[in-house]
Design goal:
single chain; alpha/beta; Rossmann fold; 5-stranded parallel β-sheet; 8 helices
Amino acid sequence: MSVAREKILPVERATEFVRRMKVQGKRVVFTNGCFDLLHPGHTRYLSEAKKLGDVLIVAVNSDRTVGELKGSGRPLQTEPERAEILAALAAVDIVTIFDQATPRELIAAMLPDVLVKGGDWPLDQIVGRGEVEAAGGQVVSLPVSPGYSSSQLIETVRERLEGS
């Protein structure tokens, strides 16, 4: 088994990992998303998120929820593939896959010290903010890298294929 795959945990084990890290005094950072086509905007974002603490947990939307969020034909990569790619990144400590419409339940169970989302999410719309702040944690909105978008990459590929 690859090291990357060892970093992919079911929700229950990921939650237990977070508890252990907090007992050890580690600052836990949490983020979530679809991560359908990984691009430099994602890697920059995850690297910056990791700098906010000791441990970075990435929760990945299940294939079912990506389809609901992004529409027909998405995701392009399966949840195990997306999780493995994320787990291979040095900045990422643990990856878990969640199947709810939002990660609120998972965030409430983990109560990370820092909840991070991209700057395209206004603070008042970040799911889990209330739970994290009520537990004494902070919510951080990181700037997005302009010019990077999985949806835009997909559209560019479609346009090029149609033009050839």
